[in-house]
Write a structure and sequence with these properties.
InterPro entries: DUF112_TM. This protein is an all-alpha fold. It is built from 18 helices and 2 strands.
Length: 510
Amino acid sequence: MDALNSLMDGFGTALSPINLLWAAIGVLLGTAIGVLPGIGPAMAVALLLPVTYGLEPTGAFIMFAGIYYGAMFGGSTTSILLNTPGESAAVVAAMEGNPMAKAGRGAQALAAAAIGHFAGGMVGTILLVALAPKIAELAVDIGAPDYFAIMVLAFIAVTSVLGSSRVRGLASLLIGLTIGLIGLDQMTGQQRLTFGTLELADGVDVVIVAVGLFAIGEALWVAAHLRRTSGEAIPVGRPWLDKGDVKRSWKSWLRGPVIGFPFGAIPAGGAEIPTFLSYVTEKRLSKHKDEFGKGAIEGVAGPESAASASAAGTLVSMLTLGLPTTAVAAVMLAAFQQYGIQPGPLLFEREPELVWGLIASLFVGMVLLLALNLPLAPLWAKLLRIPRPYLYAGILFFAAVGAYAVGGEALDLVILLVIGLIGFGMRRYGLPVLPAVIGVILGPAAEQQLRRALQISDGSFTGLVNTPFSVTVYAVVVLLLAWPLINKLIKRGSSDREDQDQDQDRTVDA
């Protein structure tokens, strides 16, 4: 009941005229940026982060919620219309949505995606309301060894799940950890990696890192591979679904959150895995299996619902533990830190108006998203006709202005370009970007918790594993590291048994 009462207070905050305006602006901006080719939610949020600096915290994060969900829907729009996923989680939407669009059913695909986002986001946010306060209460008792163990789990999980290999994921993480070391040592006050430059004593701002790696790196990568053609948008009519479409989709909309929310809440969960799992589930349960690959509406409805619920799940870890499980959550955590607010177990006690206003605004934002984007889908299609040279030139300009606005230092622009070149190099050699951002944000905090735990135990490493919680987390870490070897042994054992069975069959036949 306490959570329900707090949520009602949150609606009082979120439904005030000014906050309602920020939510609407966030939804529009997020969708407009996210709908452009190659720009996913993470880049959209990073680009628009400086826009919120002049707002008071509650209004800023309500606007952020709109940007987050609007950018997710925008990424799905590009996947469906142009077969250009704005992020990896939108790949599945392209698998069935683009064939639907080519068959003249782009309007139905967009409507199925929009309603899927609405249904998944609603169910996921309800679960967020129910679970987040409980998790926050439990997290109050977590000590330095436990926090360090959780951060190690996040590092290992994010390097294992993302990228084409663990080595590349680990290399990306090390880049982020190195950038995170720049500045003053939090415990001794010594300068590290500043090269005698006073401006670097405060470290590199996370916003500059995020914008550099995502926006500048992506713009340079696209420019290096730019073809002098601009894709023509597929005409989109008035979105609608007939009774047959609704009958085929409604179960998919409800199944998506069951798969998406848990994956969003765990470290390095994200929306990639649950969207693929949802797609496989829908294909297995559908009575129209022959349509998959040719434009099955269930293949759009289920994964999009799972992606939206996963987005709500990421907020559980971020708000209660201060752990970003996706790139968007990492950028939002940076925004919290800009306002001097540290997400964690005590956030619900110290900033109840902000937290519950933010959660209530998720409900408001999803209603606005559905109401605005169904009729505006043809407009988003026209935005896709912008020639890519102009598009990415605008991104570079916006990113530079945003980076300069962070600190007002010319050196920030140089750092932005250097980090952008690093982001370009990471794309060139197949290094995932998210581990680097996670390393920049969690690296200093992990170092602080490690040193704090060692101080408590007088320098003994046993102080890192002196609680049942930390031992359990490290057991999960070992399992994650050993799983490829275990999986390989299982496959080898099964193949050996098959060979033996075949030999026995040949002997019997002989």
